Every structure is written in structure tokens, then in C-alpha cells.
Amino acid sequence: QKEVEQDPGPLSVPEGAIVSLNCTYSNSAFQYFMWYRQYSRKGPELLMYTYSSGNKEDGRFTAQVDKSSKYISLFIRDSQPSDSATYLCAMSVPGANNLFFGTGTRLTVIP
Amino acid sequence: GAGVSQTPSNKVTEKGKYVELRCDPISGHTALYWYRQSLGQGPEFLIYFQGTGAADDSGLPNDRFFAVRPEGSVSTLKIQRTERGDSAVYLCASSLRAASGNTIYFGEGSWLTVV
Fold first, then answer.
1. Distance (Å) from the alpha carbon of B50 to chain A's nearest alpha carbon
2. Is residue B79 within 8 Å of residue B19, measured between CB atoms?
3. What is the pLDDT along chain B (115 residues), one digit of tens a residue?
4. Are B43 and A99 within 8 A, CB to CB?
5. Which chain A residues have a beta carbon less than 8 Å from that of B56?
6. C-beta atoms of B33 and A98 within 8 A
7. B49 has which bridge partners?
8. Which of A1, A111, B16, B32 is 20 to 30 A distant from B52 in Cα terms?
9. Torsion sign (Cα): A40, A86, A45, B89
């Protein structure tokens, strides 16, 4: 079993829809949780960063962490065609130097 | 430069050849990482440098892979006797200090194809 599980999709939604992306994990020591966006043939770009449980909002993006369920989510409101990309969740343990990534979910927002 | 710079952006090599991939981190970042991303997968950790030393090389798949950072800035990932299974995107990243609690920034990757 991988430490981080993520549905690879693909996921297609109409423009303006609310998108929900999710990851589950098995290592209860994870404390730092991140969402990266990766456009085709580009490197991952950090979108959201949260520590421990709770919600964080930044514009149209909201990240949620539920440590009791070992489940994290990214919500995108009013989705735009420019949001079409692969979304990767990542997490790390305090004091560790490496990130554990999910496989990524490929999202297409249709105009 | 403003971001993490990687060269070459694309490399096609024959099986058995030696390859070097270069990474120039964000200026002032002491921590540098190499990750490998296969098609349809998330990045997987290879090695981490703090300054000049490899502080954690637990992700290197075998002894054909080696990385250096001699002056604490630019890093080179070296792959000997390349195999077709080495085909992937090799991503370099850097952060101000160690990853834990600090944001890491990725380059655009070196796309390696072994034929």
C-alpha cells in the first residue's frame, strides 16, 4: 500500500463548477500537507500549504485536512479552463527532508 | 535567476550511456532535492542536499545513480549505464532550509528518454 493514495482521474467539469480533489494517507506522522498544480511538461507549482488539521482558503482555492480520517481535500470554486492541469497532493513528516506525493489527478475544465 | 533552473530540458540517450543532469537552485537556498517522476505518477524522492553534503540519499534506486553539489549551489545528477526504465522526468527543487515546514520550489524538469 502506498503511503499516499490519490484518484488519478481524469476528471472533467464544466466551467464554473466546484471541483473537489482528495487524497488519503496511511502515515499518522504526516503534519505538513500541500497541493501542487502541474501543467503539461512543467514542474509542480505550490498552490496550498497547511500544517496539521483545519481549513485554509486562498482566493478560489480551499484546502482541508482531517487528520482523524487521514484525508485531505482541495476545493476549487468557479473553476476556469486555466485550472486544467494535474493536481498533486504531497505531505511530509516534521524533521524529514522528503515529500510523499500522490499520483496526481488530471483535471480538465471545459469552457 | 528567479526560479530553479534545470538543463538539459530534454535528453535522449542510448541504453548503456552515461548522463548528467544539472540543477541551479534559487539563489540563497541551502537545501536542494532531486525527485523522479514517471509517466502518470507523482514525484518520488531521490536525494537531499543541505549545503555541499548529501544529507539523505535514501531514495536513489541503485548505485548507477549519483549526485554531487560541490560548492553548495549547483548540483549534478549522474546516471551511469542508463536503462530504458530510467526514462522519466528528473525534477530538481530547492528551499531556504530543510523541507520540513519550509516551502520547496520545483524546476521544470529534465525529460530523460533512454532508447
1. 10
2. yes
3. 579 999 999 999 999 999 999 999 999 999 999 999 999 899 999 999 998 888 899 999 999 999 999 998 999 999 999 999 999 999 999 998 776 667 889 999 999 999 9
4. yes
5. 97-98
6. yes
7. B32, B54
8. B16
9. negative
